[in-house]
Structure formats: structure tokens, C-alpha cells
Amino acid sequence: MTLQTALRQAIRRAASIRALAAEAGVSHVMLWGILHGYEKASPNVARKLARALERRASRSARDARRYEAEAARIRAALRGFKHPRPPE
Q1: Number of CB atoms found within 10 A of residue 80's CB
Q2: Which CATH class for the 3-79 domain?
Q3: Which helix (H) or strand (E) holds 46?
Q4: Are 63 and 56 in contact, with CB atoms under 8 Å apart?
Q5: pLDDT band at 85 (very low <50, low <70, confident <90, very high)
């Protein structure tokens, strides 16, 4: 799974884009852009979203597995992420 796909799924499954953005410390407009393919997420944004999902998992016993799974997918996609090199 690519990083962009993992992030789109996590954002789509979140109850509220604004709440997830606030918790992650990123703009809700950026998350909307990632969700709809107008923005590409950086590894830094991906890490922030994974941390926010992990915090949600620790607070919500009912949804803990779902949030932990989303965070794990993002972290797995980050391991395979390669920064595009600028043309020389």
C-alpha cells in the first residue's frame, strides 16, 4: 500500500477531518486535499497523523483496534516511502 493510499483511507475513516487535523496539528484543508488527490502528504504529515491515531486509540477502548490498524498502515507505508529526487 502506498503512503498516499494509507493516508487517504485513514482520513476517510476518521469521524471528522477537522478533529483529526486539530489533533495531528495540521491543516484540515491539507487533509481534505490529500483525501481528494489535490495534495501529496509529506512523511512529516504522515507521522503526525499516525501519532494522532495512536493517541485516539489510547483514549477509546471501543475503537482502539481500528485506530491502531490505521496508524500501523501509515507507518508501514512510510517504511517503503522514497523521497522523489529533484532533477539534476
Answers
A1: 10
A2: mainly alpha
A3: helix 43-59
A4: yes
A5: low
